[in-house]
Amino acid sequence: MRAVTIDDFGATPTVTETAKPEPGPGEILVRVRASSLNGFDGAVIYGVFKDMLEHKFPITLGKDFAGTVEAVGEGVARAAGERVFGVVMKPVVCEGSFAEYVVVADGYGIAALPEAVDFAQAGALGLAGTAAVDVIDAIAPKAGETVLVSGATGGVGAYAVQLAQATGATVLATAKPGEEADFVRGLGAAHVVDYTGDLTAQVRAIAPEGVTTAVHLVGDPLQLADLLAPGGRIASTLGFGPEAAGDRDITVTSVMANPDTATLERLAGAVADGTMKVSLAQTFPLDAVDRAVGAFGAGTVGKIGISVD
Length: 309
What we know:
The chain is an alpha/beta fold. It contains nine helices and 18 strands. The strands form four sheets. Strands 3, 6, 7, 9, 10, 17 and 18 form a seven-stranded mixed sheet that branches. The chain has a six-stranded parallel sheet with strand order 13-12-11-14-15-16, sandwiched between helices. A three-stranded antiparallel sheet has the order 2-1-5, with no helix packed on it. The protein starts with a strand and ends with a strand.
């Protein structure tokens, strides 16, 4: 089968022919139809996690997947042809979803895909959507409160803006004027603050006493912490935890995306009923993943999809 692999840290991703995997007990072989790029993929390429996670080369890149069940191992009740999506969750970084087929475990990191959600949407939903759900659940905004989303134009941020707005809270989203600002307003942001300017002054002009809650996806977490009102809440996907907040009167939660089946079903349901949209900036074929990685690094508005058809 075709797969996008690297044979060392820093190598250019290339399409290679690899053996088609077989599902073992409790596993599912998925015929992948779509995926998307995440920050995790770039981190794997450049060895960011080499001292934290076990890697086995050659590595097939890719975390998100959407497709159909091709075959199942012993003890799995899913049927061939069933539409599924999710996130590849394995203890060793080796077998990813930028491939025609991927084997995943049943029961975690996978969910049924409603007919109302197409493969391209689902392929860009799993990891970023889960991270967004987890950060918004961590800060638990309420109607009438304010949410500052730093990194609003990225994959996680775009979902976070929508989830926060759905709670009835007022969303302040970071974005440059023009296309980025229009993008976040279209997702439900009530205010746009330009992160290339004086962010503190802009936020204080909108919320003089400070914002109630904040989502840290990029930038300086202490700057965001200082923009919180006393008793405010902030969640970070970048390792900012309570110990780093000093004596500030705030609640800090460090979040790691947990793509359990319930969360994936929640995301798919929101896309299916139209309460959340998937914003795909560009889609690249499997043999152009190297160009997709370059586009991701240059910065995009929304997600970058990978088509495996």
